[in-house]
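Please, why this fold?
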Amino acid sequence: MIEKLSSYWRWFLKNWFIVLVLIAGLRVSMTPGRFIKGMIWSDAEGYYLYLPAVLINGGFEDLEVRTEVQFPLYEGTNKRFTKYTYGVALMELPFFLLAHFVASIMGQADGYSYPYLIGLQLSGLFYGLMGLYFMKKILEEHFRPLVVMMTVFGFFLGTNLYHYILQHPSMSHVYSFFLFGLLVMMTPKLYHYPSWRVFGVMGLLLGLVVLIRPTNILIGLYILFYGIRSSAAIKERFQFLGAHAWKVLFAATASFLVFLPQFAYWKYISGDWLIYSYGDEGFNWLNPRIDMVLFNIKNGWLLFSPMAGLAVIGGLLGSWKNPYNIAPITVIWLLTLYITASWWCWWFGGAFGHRNFVEYYMILAVPYAWLFTKVFDSPYKPLKVFMVLLWLALLYYSYFLAVFYHGPHYDWDSWKLVVNYMWHFNFGGEFQ
């Protein structure tokens, strides 16, 4: 019996990613009834509407939208204005074209009918699973199979990444998550094989990342400080960049090219090549709401994704000796936290948990895996058992919240109702 169980475990450790894909496929087949109508709505529509505008409507004039109040006509013109950039639409394009082909056959080629909703669902699923695969490949360079499995499953089922892959994939975060994975995977090549091609691709990817969410430029710090563990290494890094100055310029040019269609849209809309599309929205740098971002019932990150707190602990503990670039990752997370908490809308609208950290899971997976490795390498068996039990509990907690989420976000009463149900479902009685 023990040998049979052992063979099953070995099979699972070898094929667990296939199991993850099957779980994702099963869950996504069960979500359309709850989330499909909101697939093209609010912010998600703002990212998406470039596609029906250009490929169906022939422009932004007289363009009909679902979220009318959020996308007004630009200053007395008939041109529909979106403050969001076109980067997400570019990544959705292959799935949009497939959906448009099917919708045309069905006589429903309006950009909003059911085939387009399914296309967006498949788009998020593809980029999300590919991002998780990149996370797996990145971690396998340094960590044992058990830790890699627990890390990838931990972030997929134990954080709000699950929601943005399967339940609300039309937001920008799953696309940035995918791009972060590509950048992290290519970073070693940049320094070991510094060819023109590598610099150019890195420039294009970084430009697209910044286009989609400008604050995600912080991932550039990971690239810049990759592998640095001393002050002498910092000097060597800048010498390296100086020696490849023309390639750096080439990468910057590639990044700039990504923005050209966006400049063209702004010129078409406003008459100016460059505008601040967010109007009066801005940052309150002197009063960041860090406590609210982390723990408030209105999308508090660690309230809804406490599994991610293990990555924070790993980052804070691991930064001192800086294995696996944990120190730059921790600095990037701290800067992201400060910028997020300083934004006027610190809760970032309707969301399941705080969505502004989702793409950063790609790099936070490293201190998370390092923490598990340190625990499993310790001689204290009770600590190892506790870590596994904690992992299972946090996995179940966030997954349960996500499954019962209906949006646009939890308030205190609805959150308590779900936790009450969770408590009653597992233990009976009433949670107080």
Q: What stands out?
A: The chain is about 65% helix and 0% strand. Residues 1 and 7 are 10 Å apart (CA to CA). The mean pLDDT is 93. Residues 144-165+283-432 form one domain.
